[in-house]
Amino acid sequence: MDKLDCINTFISVVEYGNFSSASRHLNITRDQVAKRICHLETIFNTVLFIRNTRKMDLTHSGEKFYQHSKVIMSEFEWATSDFTHDQKYPEGKLRINAPHSFRHAHLTEIISKFMTQYPNIKIDLFLSDKFLNISEDQYDIVLRISQDIDQRNAHLFSTYHRHFYATTAYFAKFGVPNTIDELKQHSLLLYSQTDSSTKIVLSKNKKEETIYCTPKLTCNSGDFLLDFCKQDQGIIFLPDFLAKKDQDAGKIMRCLEDYHSKQLYFYAITPSQQKIPKKVKLFLDHLKKHLSDR
Asked: What are phi and psi of 31, to 5 degrees?
């Protein structure tokens, strides 16, 4: 039997004087009222009412329980109202961790539109290419781009591949590589990784090939590498979503299109809990819609 229903029924009996009046007020039978009061008296092992034919008076325990019951129901009604308001008008702070490279892929536009739509949600954004622990660092959402995906509490948005790009001026001066051996003769600009910054794994016609090279430049910032590439300094190995804007504008062009890299996953991680908070779900849905519209 639901305790809140029993408590609410107890309050009605006190305020309406007897079981019959309380039953009419609550739109339930008198027998249901009696059973709920009996349930409370059983679980608390006490008598709440002094019963007589005309009126039901509270015992000392009943009086004390009535005062507590009013507070309980008042708090419950306030919590319900507050929760309902939050579901309709979400608010609070949303802590997001995202890789630096994603800033180049319309992150400013994504967050700007989200905050316009939900002005009561405040964003605390931290950009870092380091994989942070969502629990230890107390983030609501951690966005990641990786060759591996952590299936626990993961929300997959899209998959990408990496390709080789350079400016037309660079290709005009040094030539366009058509094979891996020719690529090794060029100035390569690679994103630095802790495990292996000089190894690239590619496949062509379902045959895998590993390239070991000495890059001209390694850096842990995709933005810096892209800007450096646009200074005609070499060939960059970059995810297609980062290169798309400059490729469409004709600032860089792709080479070695027959070769394919391992798939990259773009996904979000949320804290391990049964129900995702409303503000988190709204941002995930917003991000997914933005990417699907592209």
From this structure: -65, -35
